Amino acid sequence: MCILFFFGPQSTSEPSSHSLSHQPHLVSSPQLPSTPPQYPQLLPQSLSQPPKASFSLAHHQPPQNCIAHFILNTTAIYLSLLSSSNQHQHLPSHPVMYNRAPTTSHNEDNDNGLFNRSTINGEQQTSKRKRVRPGKNVKRWELKKKTALQPFQATSTDPSQEQEDEKGISSTHSATQSNNNNTNNNQKEKIFVYLVPPSHQFDPKPSEAITTQQTLQLYQHFTHGTCVAAPRGEPPFCKVKYVPFDTMSAEELQGWEKLVCHFFDRTNYVAAVKNNGPQVDGSMWADGWRKGSKKESFGRYCSVGKLVKMMLLANYNPQDEAASIKEASDFISIQLQHLAPGVFEKYRETLIENNLPSMSHMEYPLPYDALDFASFLTFTMFDFHNGPHCDTDANHWTLVCWIPIFNPRNCSEDDPILANDDFDMLGGQFTFRDFQVCLDLNHVLGVALCVFRSRDYTHQTLPGASPSGKYTRIGFSGQMSEAMSNAVVAHINGTAPFLEVAGQEKQVSNAQKKL
């Protein structure tokens, strides 16, 4: 900054006795007043004390020219203000803002949105500023997760029903196994909830009859733990739980081994299903009750030719067969109750309301017990896969399970039943194309249990294979046929004049005629 000093003609007037350095004001005449005027304090208290300047006018002798005195005084004041401003420029300009009065807020609806009504120091104030609710998004997502888990939770609160269920469980299993299952069921379970965004609620490749592994890279994969999938803001369509073999107790492992052996044994009495529409490859069997192919008859799945063969080998005992079927049915029922009690209740509701026979019943009709839930089951092996489809069964929710095992066609007598650490299956995923969700069954060596809405959404089992040929996977599901329901209704109403019900006794009688 450059300051130019202009000096006018010399004045003969004498300066005032008051020091010119203390007169920061403009004078109207060369004659200075004897008493300095009083000015209001415009600066903050902290700035009212002028800082030390780089030079001082106190020890200078005032020049004789009054205009020169004025210019020097004005310059000194300007430099003092400039220096003070630089030193205090970071001070808050409104200290009152840091001592806020206590307030209370309320919400008030209006035509233009939401007002914020506040009371400050007893005075009510209103503004249109949007209110921020801490944790609002967290609470919203928690509510959606709670909605997604609700269908899997039990709704029955009848104490007599609970006692009946406990009695049914304890009567068919040892106390040790029941206690272990109850302990595991009561532990806090961590569940991953996947809310499918709208951008993923479509089939990315509808032209593919069999979804390729490349297309699966677009899908959300479930590989371990317990997972639930639901469209965002809608009810869920799937829950899956992966149970590794190395986390099971000895009793649990034995239970799964006995179930696999039961399926092997049933292939000696029932023929493979030939007319399954969606099936592409692999083998499928069915066991339990079904509608007959002629008129309005129904009975248990049985191949009379296979039954005759077993009777000739003296390997058939009706009581042992009934006990084995009952034990397997109860074991599956308990797994379903632990996975999704709410789905188990829906199963039982459909079974009882339609007067359908339970798959554990050898004759019809028989009274239900606490573990009855489905009429029949299907089980698959040897790289079974199918096309995309929706089911037409009476049950809206379906239980499905996959168990990795040694291939019974290629294994030796020394091989165990359940697969070991060398399990090398590839593929075989279970998919929901409309939501781009995939259940990957190859990451956990153990059992995968799943319940899903089989009538409402397209699902598919993809091809799988074991490169070594040593392994395969058993998959089974519990169902109730809609056609079976119609046959039972006709039987109850008496609208089928030549109705025939084929239970175990009828099948044994037919086989004995061919001996």
Automatic annotation (TrEMBL):
Compositionally skewed regions (Low complexity) per UniProt: 12-32, 40-51
Biased composition (Polar residues): 113-125, 150-160, 169-178
Pfam families listed in its UniProt record: 2OG-FeII_Oxy_6
Signal peptide: none
Region (Disordered): 12-58, 88-186
Residue span, Tet-like 2OG-Fe(II) oxygenase domain: 251-463
Transmembrane portions of the chain: none
Domain of life: Eukaryota
Basic residues compositional bias, start-end: 127-138
Protein name listed in UniProt: Leucine-zipper-like transcriptional regulator 1
UniProt organism field: Puccinia graminis f. sp. tritici
